[in-house]
Amino acid sequence: MTNLSHYGSDNLTEDNKNVNDFLTAELERYKDQVRILKEKNNIDKASESCAQSLEIDNLKHILSEYLKEKESLKQKVTLLKNDFQKEES
Questions:
Q1: What pLDDT is attached to residue 1?
Q2: Is residue 11 in some structural domain?
Q3: Cα separation of 66 and 79, whole Å?
Q4: Is the residue at 10 inside a domain?
Q5: Using CA atoms, how far apart are residues 15 and 19, in angstroms rounded to an integer?
């Protein structure tokens, strides 16, 4: 095993400080990346939710149009039945 006494405690302290500074900077960088990814995820979810809401509104509109058309066709059938019954009598 190497004797570290000749290396000097000042050098060890400086090395430890450099390592700590590097690791602290890396940790901050990772925290920033996590924050950015979380924000992006929230934006993506909001965007998806908005798109789904628009699709739901569109489907509601289409359904409403189909229901109106169905009601109109029912009325026409009823009128035709009445006309047919009048002609038979």
A1: 46
A2: no
A3: 20
A4: no
A5: 6
What value does the CA radius of gyration of the chain take, rounded to a whole number of Å? 38
Q: Report if residue 3 sits inside a domain.
A: no
Per the structure, how many domains does the chain have? 1
Mean pLDDT of the chain, nearest integer? 91
Q: Which residues contact 12 (CB under 8 A, 6 or more apart)?
A: 4
CA 84/CA 86 separation, integer angstroms: 5
- How far apart are alpha carbons 73 and 46 in whole angstroms? 40
Query: Whole domain around residue 70: which residue ranges?
Result: 22-88
Residue 4 reports pLDDT greater than 60: no
- DSSP 8-class letter at 89: -
Q: Report pTM.
A: 0.57
Nearest 5°: the CA angle 65, 68, 72 is 140
Average pLDDT over residues 47-74: 97
